[in-house]
Amino acid sequence: MFLPKYPDTPTPPPAHTHTMAEPTPIRRPAPQISVSTGAVAAVLVGGVVLTALLAAVAVTAVSVAVAAVVLRSMLRDQRGR
Hints:
Blueprint: H1 37-80
């Protein structure tokens, strides 16, 4: 019941005919991006400058906060007397 049915006479395999395929397009390499040394230096200098500015703002904010706490403490002591 589950046996395959074979043809009575064997048929030869079909002959392969080789046809001329379309020529493949020439692949050109992608252009390479070259980064100049000046551009890298500019980015590094810009990063250093921005980091220094951020550090200066942070130090200023901390010093202002400390000064405010000290002044508040001094004024509170003055009112209490």
